[in-house]
Design goal:
It is built from twelve helices and twelve strands. It is an alpha/beta fold. The chain has a single domain, classed as TIM Barrel, CATH 3.20.20.80. The strands form three sheets. The protein has an eight-stranded parallel barrel with strand order 3-4-5-8-9-10-11-12, surrounded by six helices. The protein has a two-stranded antiparallel sheet with strand order 1-2. Strands 6-7 form a two-stranded antiparallel ribbon. Helix 2 packs parallel to helix 3, helix 2 packs across helix 11 and helix 9 runs parallel beside helix 12. The longest helix is centred in the middle third of the chain and has 18 residues. It is globular, with a radius of gyration of 20 Å. Bound molecules: zinc ion. Zinc ion binds next to loops.
């Protein structure tokens, strides 16, 4: 026991760094930030943001939500109306390389194929991929609604869907010169639906895991890593976490059915829920993700630190670190970063204050 104590003391001595302001900081392999890719008009300020905000905060990983905001040449029909160009992406890549920041582009696969009353590009152009073709978009979207419509999903068993989405994945990896791809896959509510002739009656956990395996296999073949959100792999009822940050639609058993090389982004915004330990104990590498509650982020850093220090050798390196997720645009975030007293919402929350907390301690 004493030896263990000594070892962990050495661990603390040798593996903690000190930040510029003299506070002890972590040795997390991942200090990440996740935000939407900028619009084509806002690339210059975004590059400034990388240099002025991300780099000084020691961010080393940037998950960029790109989706259909790129001028795809493999499927021009899937471009949003206005998109990032090839050369604009290259300028972002260049800025990140200069700062030692790894970029991981994201396209939402499986779920999040619509928002409120409109389809994203994939289902707009290829409505045959829709898992729930009988669910019509309401004129005025409200939640909850009779159809349980949050976001549409594509059908993971449609024989043609992967040929299309993998073209986009390949192209985005290529232009971003990335070694990993984030496939989203959070909050997938429509899965194995009765109205789908292929998925009807199938086990949602099998369907979810099957889709993860398929994407992972494609990426492994290219020597690339797959990142996903973790919520579908946690049982929402047993944990009390509910239907958003965990699963109430029978997908949780997929945790035992997916490949161990998939990286899990484990988001919890209200409390520092210790589910990272659950993922790591299943052999999966995991990144803990806060959003806009500084105190939650602080607890998550301490928890991650503690998991890394207190776990057996084989397990501790699975706790890769932290990634803040920001769900507003970069423009607002950047502007608020200039304020000494950034705006908070009516519950006192602020993604900017959370970022400032993280940059001091991670
Ligand atoms: Zn289906």
């Amino acid at each position: 026991m004493k030896r263990m104590l000594l070892l962990s003391w050495f661990g603390i001595l040798f593996f903690t760094l000190t930040s510029a302001n003299g506070q002890e900081t972590s040795n997390f392999p991942v200090r990440g930030f996740c935000i939407s890719a900028p619009s084509t008009e806002r690339v210059e300020p975004f590059i400034q943001f990388v240099h002025d905000i991300l780099a000084p905060a020691r961010v080393n990983t940037l998950v960029l939500r790109v989706d259909y905001n790129y001028a795809y040449t493999s499927h021009p029909e899937l471009r949003n109306e206005s998109t990032l160009t090839y050369s604009q992406v290259k300028s972002i890549v260049q800025a990140c390389r200069q700062e030692g920041i790894r970029i991981i582009p994201q396209i939402n696969l499986l779920g999040h194929q619509s928002w409120h009353s409109s389809s994203e590009k994939l289902l707009e152009v290829y409505p045959q991929f829709d898992e729930t073709p009988e669910v019509a978009f309401p004129e005025h979207y409200v939640w909850p609604n009779a159809d349980g419509l949050y976001c549409k999903s594509y059908c993971p068993l449609h024989p043609e869907v992967h040929a299309v989405v993998f073209d986009l994945v390949d192209e985005i990896l290529d232009v971003f010169e990335a070694d990993a791809f984030h496939a989203g896959m959070d909050e997938v509510f429509y899965l194995g639906e009765e109205q789908c002739p292929r998925c009807n009656g199938m086990d949602p956990a099998e369907l979810f895991a099957g889709e993860v395996r398929r994407i992972d296999q494609h990426l492994s073949g290219l020597g690339k890593e797959l990142w996903i959100w973790g919520d579908r792999l946690i049982d929402g009822k047993l944990t009390g976490l509910g239907m958003w940050e965990a699963s109430m639609n029978n997908t949780a058993r997929a945790i035992d059915l997916i490949p161990k090389d998939v990286i899990i982004c484990d988001w919890h915004y209200e409390q520092a829920v210790p589910t990272a330990a659950y993922f790591a104990s299943k052999g999966l590498r995991v990144i803990t993700c806060p959003w806009r509650e500084p105190t939650v982020a602080e607890s998550q850093v301490q928890m991650t630190q503690s998991f890394r220090e207190q776990s057996p050798e084989i397990m501790k390196d699975r706790f890769l670190g932290m990634m803040q997720t920001v769900w507003g645009g970069v423009e607002g975030f950047y502007a608020e970063m200039q304020n000494d007293k950034p705006r908070t919402d009516d519950q006192g929350r602020s993604d900017v204050l959370t970022f400032r907390t993280l940059q001091k301690i991670w």
